[in-house]
What we know:
By secondary structure, the chain is mostly beta strands. 11% of the residues lie in helices and 44% in strands. It contains 2 helices and 6 strands, in the order βββαβββα. The protein has helices at residues 61-67, 100-104, and strands spanning 8-20, 27-38, 54-60, 74-83, 86-89, 95-96. Strands 1-2-3-5-4 form a 5-stranded mixed barrel. The radius of gyration is 15 Å and the shape is globular.
Amino acid sequence: MVQMMPNAALIQAMVLAAEPYPAQVGFYVVSLLVKQASEKSGKRFLGSDLQQKEVKVLVSQSLTEQLNLTAGQQLSGEIKKVSPVMWRAIEESWQPAANKRSATKPPKKR
């Protein structure tokens, strides 16, 4: 059997599109542009293979609604490889990514 690597990763990414998954009701295929990728403790990982690349992630309808996914939105969470071309979102790990600008720069005074 061929090993798929990387098989798990923690990523920060931008949503490109979300479409219903035709093979299973209640799921979406979300296209993400990976900005940063790091290793999930204890899992095989080749981070440089993911960064600045588009990945397809299978996401449940409930998580899609919870995050209110829209193109351009920044997210962070864990993904796991399920096929050579598809990843799966690990539901409990996903959240909107922190806005780096607001964390590093104080608001302007008027």
